[in-house]
Amino acid sequence: MPAAPHHPENTVRALIESPHVSAATRAALLDRLETAAQPYTPQFFDADTFALLQAVCARLLPQPERAAPIEVAPRIDERLAAGLSDGWRYDVLPPDREAYRLGLGGIQQEAQAQFGQPFAQLAPEQQDETLRRVQQATAAGAAWQTLDGPRFFEELLAEATALYYQHPLAQEEIGYVGMADLPAWTRIGLDEREDREPQPIQP
Amino acid sequence: MPGEESLEEGVLNPSKPTVEPDIQDPLLRQLLQTSPPPQPQQQPVPTPRAEVDCIVIGTGAGGAPLLARLAMAGLKVVALEAGPRHDARRDFATDEKAQEFLFWNDERLSAGRTPTSFGNNNSGTGVGGSTLHYTAYTPRAQPDDLRLRTEFGVGEDWPLSYDDLAPYYDELEHFLGISGPSPYPWGPARRRGYPLAPLPLNGAAQLMQRACEQLGIRTSPAANAALSARYYQEGIGWREACTNRGFCQAGCSVGAKASMDVTFLPLAEAHGAEIWPNCFVTEIERDAQGAITGVVYETDGQQQRLGCRTLFLCAGAVETPRLLLLNELALSSGQVGRNFMAHPGIQVWGTFDEMVRPYKGIPGALISEDTHRPTDADFAGGYLLQSIGVMPVTFASQVARGRGLWGQPLRDYMRQYNHIAGINILGDCLPHADNYLELADEKDARGLPKPRVHFSFHDNEERMTAHAEKLMRRIWDAAGARDIWAFPRSAHVIGTCRMGLSGDYAVVDTDGRAFGVPNLYICDNSVFPSALSVNPALTIMALSLRTADRFLETQKRLDTKTKS
């Protein structure tokens, strides 16, 4: 795979303030930036479980280049505390709150079983190996007798991924500037670029 | 204001079954016949309550067109919509997260070997229903789509023909302002072309067009219910042209997409229809003969009641059967909830050297129906091919679910977002006995059982999917893609209250009227006897207009009888 393109920093922040972004869109994006910057106290998980969730999410979406990584664990905790749903769930999984409690417990069990230490204290490669076992249905441990590991992992990964790419800076990272759609896109064909769309910096 | 009475006692409903038994004893019967009529205190005097000619439950593609038709015929009609009313121009953001309110987010349980997803995959809520969310892709069904059993010996025939639908397709295309190619390359000749030229092709469409040309597959700009030019809509006024913001699936803020909130619903209101948002219907009430007398709905945490002479249930292929099952209504055929179908909708993605920027332009810009009846098919029915644009969060979620990528590989792959393009299919699905909707033991926030939907692809769907994946990989190869991968999925919710000629195996008749319940009509994707090889929205709307016309015919006949 060729090295991934990068995009100039501050593209999205500058666009948000521009007349190319509608008031409703601007309000949503600024609110998300603001919320993400706030310190967060877990409401649903206890402190230890929340720290475990953070450690898991840090492997799903590692951000070594960011001084302040985009945190997705707070958003998951918020959602579970509020009891919100995205409209469906796999029937093989228990309700979301229970699935998260069981699943995180199972990850901890698997870390102990394989490496004799809590997940958070493992080396990154060991953490990845633990998660891979859950994803591939090879994790042992009591939790995985009742919880479908691959489906739980899929749900956790899909939620964490969606939360990450909802963040304006993650959108900037991939060169998405669809939020700046005013007054219209007119150059929409292959290799056609509107002036306000950033040029990628080839590595 | 929506109904002002609170819930009262004494009207029959399924939780209090008080249907009077037939009196078997001849002496008692005689006594009752000669005695004065039953004392009013047996049934507490009902407080006066509002009654309208027709209640329509749901304001999507099934409910909105008929609401307008009924209002234009002078009937007093009220639509009850579970979701809120939006001001799309002011409130709709170009942001997937911010638009999550658009989806039906009450949890549904997805069971089966290939569980289908709900939420943002196929549902909407609010005034306009799921048309707030649809991609505006509006091909017509082809005549043989309606005769699957005749042609292949599997699936079901529709009890009506293409000729019954064609005049409605024509009317809709011109009323909604559909942008598309004229003449349309597939299907029977048409009375007239689309009223507007096709929308411009985006990057994915150009790639697919180029490759299909090499491979000898015919393509065409697709028919989309989004305006390629400003359009004057009878009874509504001017609607603005599409600005290519690529955001159809999460709500149009321009009014260019023909969702019901900017087309049939304002038309209905202009003719006196009322639309009451935030009204979630929980009960359907009947009299001793089983005729519907009205509904009970929740609004603002209060229960309210509204009476009607005829009920139109247009809540979609999940909520419609759910409401019938909850109310033990129209169940005599045993088919409510059965025959659940979802279109095979496998997507194939690839990475291109060219800059695609998949967030721009109408998402489904290009179509091919050359696969409607492939000569080398080892399955019944067929499918259509379409190019697809995609928004970043939706795409990232699919990468996570479909490729199972995480960690650095996920972030590296996503950095190529602007070079990624997709094609997908939409294909027929057969009804299978183990694909059905039921009420689960688990309750939702209202205390009502959640719907559980069992869905598994069988041989026919698997073979069609394999055929399509092979073809789409060839197309993307020819287009110069690398790192091609497939995301198997299903789209749309269909069936569960099927239409047919007999109440032995169907829930509604050809006019959309429920067997066994004279004043109940159902109109949405639940009545489809087969899934069709095209997106359902245009056909739902056609059925909606037809259902209204058939109903109005019967009213006319009744009026004539009364007068003579």
UniProtKB/TrEMBL annotation, chain A:
InterPro entries (UniProt xref): Gluconate_2DH_su3
Protein name from the UniProt record: Gluconate 2-dehydrogenase subunit 3 family protein
Organism: Hymenobacter busanensis
Automatic annotation (TrEMBL), chain B:
Source species, domain of life: Bacteria
UniProt entry keywords in alphabetical sequence: FAD, Flavoprotein, Oxidoreductase
Domain Glucose-methanol-choline oxidoreductase C-terminal, first and last residues per copy: 431-543
Domain Glucose-methanol-choline oxidoreductase N-terminal: 123-344
Gene3D superfamilies xref list: FAD/NAD(P)-binding domain
Pfam families according to UniProt: GMC_oxred_C (PF05199), GMC_oxred_N (PF00732)
GO molecular function, one term: flavin adenine dinucleotide binding
Family statement drawn from the similarity comment of this UniProt entry: Belongs to the GMC oxidoreductase family.
Protein name stated in the entry: GMC family oxidoreductase
Organism: Hymenobacter busanensis
